[in-house]
Amino acid sequence: MKGLFRIGTLGSRIYTVFIVFIFGTIFIMQIVSFQFTVTTVRNSMIASNRTLLSQLTRQIDSYIEDMENLSLAIIEESGSQDVLRSEYAVSLNDHRALIQEQIGRYLKARDDILNIYFTDLSGTIFSADAAVQINPWSDVTESPWFVSALENPDRTIISGSYVQNLIVGEYSWVTSLSRGILSSDTEEPLGVLLVDLKFDSIQELCQSMVTGRRGYNFILDENGDYVYHPTQQLVYSGVKDEPVQQLLEIAQQDEQNMFTDGQHYYFVNTSSMTGWHVVSVLFRDDMITDWTYVQITYAAIGLILFLIVGLATNRITRGITSPVKRLQGIMKSVDTGDFHLVGQIDATDEIRELAHDYDIMVTRIRELMVENVKEQELKRKSDLKALQAQINPHFLYNTLDSIIWMGEMRQHKEVVLMTSALSKLMRISISKGRELISVRDEIDHVRSYLTIEEMRYRNKYDSHIDIDPGIGDEHILKITLQPLVENAIYHGIKEVDHKGLIEITGRREAKVLIFTVSDNGRGMSPETVEKLNTLREEPDDEADRASGQGMGVRNVHARIRLYFGESYGLHCESTPGVGTTITVRIPSSEAIR
Asked: Which of 125, 180, 471, 553 has the fewest CB within 10 Å, making it most exposed?
């Protein structure tokens, strides 16, 4: 997972594109879904509120109709009209008692009726309670319910809500039904029946059908006056205001019976029976009762979808990048020299083709490397033979020159001895074409050479060979020590007056064989030693021009490094007038394995 989020990688780019795209899609879907939910809930709430409002209007109409029927039944009761006729004044007390009994019976049967009154044309009031006291300043004949009932005796007059103040000490909010009482004989008006409905009755109806936590209903009459409002006192005192005029305008339209001010939705339904406008108020915030819950729910759904898509994207991304990373890792093996093949890989067609082309390339590189190794091996053998060819003619020239010289001096025994030593030396040099010979054979080769040189330079020098017997079977490049001994004789001891000494040693240190060839000749200056150690790496002609003894040293050094590697070779140390020591370092057989 760590490598997936490195900036700039294929996986991180694919993952980023997928996540941004999916996040944007989910975010847009969340907004659209949220708006769809809000719209659906709003439409559902509006439809539900309209249904409730229609039910409320029907229930109010039913209630008022029931009250009208009740008022007609009271008027038609026997004795109701007799108490209002002046000719029955002799038996008024009897009729009054009958009326009180009838009214009391209705009041006990209906809890929603506050009081029932009979009034004659003079304003005299008859109620269920004979002891009731009428407010002396109350003029019944001037009351709107009294006047309207006499003017319209054929229908029931329904008032708006008001405070009834007829009775001393009683001031209750009521809605009144009043109806004119006509004589059954002459159709002349005798008085008015007044039924005060408790305000709570209308209130219970209106409060029983509300939508939302803060929704409410109220009622306006045809003139826009309040019949009922849940906060009646606040409305009449001007603290609370409703858009009455706009509601009356909406009520006149057949199709549109709703409007909103942004925070509230107002619904209007007009009663065909009473002419009242029943208004339902729905708060916008109540359409979804718990916005926080809805928002958290949508956020949780979005987060879950985002996580699911993120995991799926991660899986898809890994399915794309894993083969690429595997191919990348295999390709990196080229840096270390390990040319691994990809083989079968579970990936897309493009990556499989790339892997196939890579395998073809690696196979071809392997073939070229094998060919190159063979060519390098041939070149190395050619170089070794070329270097050896540079040494052999030089040595043969000097030896044959000595044999010729001894032949001229008629030293036949010496000629035979030198020729025999040369034959043995050449036999070891050839060594059946092998490049490596044992240390023991190399030392025999040096002894044969010293035998030849001692015959040329009698009493000029002594030689001493000290080779560790334990390294006799180790292998060394043939003709490694002889050129160094030749240099010691020709460029060291030959030019001094005292008797020379050549010492040859050999030992093992760890996995390295170390040989030294030392002489007590004239030695070399530090500058010459430095040049010699440096010029061992330079071309033949430059090295030979720089030092007369550079050819043998350089050729041996080049052959060792060519065969064993750059960690091995020669090192020269010399002191003027004291002598020279050349150290040879080659790997042991254990190191070569």
From this structure: 125
